[in-house]
Amino acid sequence: MKVSFSGFFNSAVTTIVLMVIYAGGLALATFIEKYHGTLAAKAMIYYSPLFFLLQFLLVVNFIALAIKKGLYKKKKWAGLITHLAFIVILFGALVSHLFGEEGIVHIREGESTNVMAVRTTQSTSFHTLPFTLELVKFNLHRYPGSSSPSSYESELLVHVDGKTRHERIYMNNVLDLKGYRFFQASFDADEQGTVLSVNRDVAGRNITYTGYIFLLIGLVLSLVTRNSRFMKLNRRLRELIDSNKKELTFLVLLCFSLTTNAQSKENPMIEAVQKFAVSTEHADKFGALPVQSSNGRMIPVNTFSSEILRKLHKSDKIGSLNSDQFLLSLLAMPDMWMRVPLIAISNSELAGFYNLTEGQSAYIEMFDSNGNYKLQEGVEGAYNKMPNERSRFDKDLLKLDEQVNIMHQLINGQMLNLFPKEDDPNHTWYASGDDLSVFAGKDSMFVSRVMDWYISEVQTALKSADWTKANEVLGMIATYQDAKSGTLIIDHEKLASEIKYNKQQVFRFTKIFYLILGGLLLVFSFVTLFKQRKWLQYTLKSLMLLVLAAFVYHMYGMGLRWYIGGYAPWSNSYETMVYVAWATVLAGILFGRRSSLTFALATLFGGIILFVSSLNWMDPEINPLVPVLKSPWLMIHVAVIVAAYGFFGISFLIGLTNLVLMNFGKGKPAKVIKARVGELSLVNEMSLWIGLTLMTIGTFLGAVWANESWGRYWGWDPKETWALITVVIYAIVLHMRMIKACKNAWALNMGSVIAFASVMMTFFGVNYLLSGMHSYGQNDNIHGIFIYLYIILAVVVLLGIRSYICFRKYRF
Fold it and tell me: Which positions, given as ranges, span the membrane (predicted)?
């Protein structure tokens, strides 16, 4: 029995089984939380005795395996330190769970308290603090002219040990006091009170942070020490490439093709309207005017018009008109544009139900012959439902209602906030159709009349083609803006950069470069495997240099967006996709010297990611950051964790390519294909190691950020839970080689393909299927992509079965 018992704990099979159960339990918990609440998930999974037992078994299993394999004697310090770090982290979490306290303190202005409410999974109790907090003032700062919070802070008097001191608490600025940490969590609706979250966990935090330091050291060592798995793979890859240079005689050419749908001929109504086109020169001047967006950000009209046209028409042009020409034409000829079918409708059922033109409908179609709004009853019914109860029809109806409202406001002179009110404490700007009674004297007269004057001159210019007068009035508006903007400084240089960013469409052209160059690289990479010609090598190098140029251009676009927004450009779904594409191509560049095929796949995949980011359900708008994201941790945490997605994407593509090649693993080409599969499999595993290292570091950097923002380093939020699941799943893929039956190329490559589903769930699925504190950049319109994911899953399963039958005995 003793042998059997010890054999169970020092078995690699036990390791994999425990990790699979652990990942499965975490995944189950996120769905329990969605349907039954956070407390139920914590009681049933996260804080259950069985879950604690599972984590204890994982610790025992590692210790037993380390002793069995003699890691200490073999001086495999990287593996020892990394796994020791996880043990320390788990121990720190246990200490936090047993002895830590989490609670809240609620204080009204002018009041004081020394009591905090401590929350547990069972109940709430009240503890007395060894000091008193008095709220002097709660300050809520909004973005100019917007209701969106920019920051909020609590000004406190702290009475402790017979002394009084002044303190300020705001997001990412913590008050440490006698082992207690206070964080700005929320505030009262009347903005006269504050809610502070409190955490007391000195021992647990110190132990956990020590584990994080060990983890960072261990993971870095795993990539650089000579006897690490990663460096051994690197040496084997170099040897394999050198030995295979003269053996290549045959390889199947793999083709990737991209198709695009031809645009249909423009609607006759649009063709008629665009005959009254505003001159490009004047439209550019109009587009350069500053305007205040609904979220308070100062943007050029060009950005505003682009966003409006994308929301209405799902395009950045309509016919031959650019967005500025469209907006000015709409303002000058609203009666005509109301009859133009420009409002995009993707739901044919919705169009049929309300008797609207399918595909694109006119604003006037939304009203019946009596002028009643057709959508009113349906919209009210959709809003009366809980968000999770709304059908696809309801969601599309609400989106159509938003489009109609945008059109209605534009026709009535609203939304285009061109006019600042001098000395307004909130720096609010107004549109000509707003209530302008807040203005007085000459300002009132100018603001109430100048837009009608300007539109009149535009109408005249459309007939005469003389834009002199319109230019003069436009200049008056610009002069008024500069004179009356007050303390809100208009950064014309930044506005000009934003116009440049809009017109250059960096990521659109980078996408095209990546797709074309990646496709050509893929073809020539395969050709060079069975034909060695100097001109082919020169062609490959030239293509690689062009990819590098496109990569630099990609970086330029990200840098320009960073400058315009004022923060690292990976705060929402669109920006993150652009960054993932960049990280994917970077991963290909790093492996390019070892494998031109990997370089080609990475470039092509970067183009595909940028293609996905350009789809209609991705919003490219630059938005102000919510308060919690105003932290240097945003740049560090997201940059590292999303870079991991790039390497996982490379592994996914290599794995998929190898599964295809394995289907030709018989007959004459078998030798060459096996050589290629072996070479690519080594690159695949190296990419997995880098990805897992970055993902692990990024996940626990996020835990540090959470501790500095919310007072706990791990709260089992669905996003962070799925990040941990992704770490565990990729760790399973890389540890499967310890099992003899899985020590083959098929298992590694199939694992790298299947594991990518966890990345997709972490990046997309959590925002769509679940909810939580990380829903800053979520999209509600990504349901269409799941159809493609299901198709890909079915293809992968069939491909995996077929390749296993053909290639299952090949080991590397």
Answer: 12-32, 44-65, 77-99, 209-227, 512-530, 542-564, 576-592, 599-618, 638-665, 686-706, 721-739, 746-770, 782-801
SS3 at position 416: coil
Give me the residue spans of the domains in the chain.
Answer: 2-99+206-210, 101-200, 273-337+417-489, 345-408, 505-624, 653-812
DSSP H helices in 663-764: 670-709, 718-735, 745-760
Cα–Cα distance, 112 to 159 (Å, whole number): 10
Q: Decide: helix, strand or coil at residue 778.
A: coil
Tell how many helices (H) and how many strands (E) occur in the chain: 29, 16
Closest CA relative to residue 474, chosen from 298, 292, 328, 323: 328
Instruction: Give percent of the chain above pLDDT 90.
Output: 38
* Alpha carbon distances (Å) from 623 to 137, 148, 395, 484: 28, 11, 23, 24
CA-CA distance, 552 to 108, in Å (whole number)?
53
User: 45-81 burial, b for 16+ CB within 10 Å, e for fewer?
Assistant: bbeeeebeebbebbeebbebbbeeeebeeeebbbbbb
Range name among 93-107, 269-283, 574-588, 603-617 with the lowest pLDDT average = 269-283
Sequence-ordered list of residues with C-beta below 8 angstroms from that of 231, at least 6 positions apart, any chain:
223, 224, 225
Higher pLDDT, 812 or 408: 408
Distance CA 410, CA 605 (A): 40
Q: Rg (Cα) of the chain, in Å, rounded? A: 30
Question: Which has the closest alpha carbon to 46: 68, 17, 24, 26?
Answer: 26
pLDDT at residue 758 in the model: 92
Closest among 797, 709, 805 to 753, alpha carbons compared: 797
Q: How far apart are the C-alpha atoms of 680 and 591, rounded to whole Å?
A: 11
Q: Where are the alpha helices (DSSP H) in 151-299?
A: 202-224, 229-244, 268-273, 280-287
Bridge partners, residue 198, by sequence: 103, 182
The residues pairing with 187 across neighbouring beta strands, listed in sequence order, are 194
Burial code (b: 16+ CB inside 10 Å, e: under 16) for 90-128 equals: bbbbbbbeeebbbbbbbbebeeeeeebebbeeeeeeeee
**Residues of the chain above pLDDT 70, percent:** 87
Q: Compare 315 and 260 and report the one with higher pLDDT.
A: 315
Phi–psi pair at 419, nearest 5 degrees: -115, 115
The band of 740, judged by pLDDT with boundaries at 50, 70 and 90, is: confident
Residue positions counted in the chain:
812
What are the start-end ranges of the H helices in 70-100? 77-99
Write the CB contacts of 142 (distance below 8 Å, at least 6 apart in sequence). Answer: 148, 149, 150, 296, 426
What does the DSSP 8-state code read for residue 414? -
Q: What are phi and psi of 339, to 5 degrees?
A: -100, 0
Tens of pLDDT along 522-533?
888 877 766 667
Q: Are 768 and 778 in contact (CB under 8 A)?
A: yes
Residues 348 and 355: beta-carbon distance below 8 Å:
no
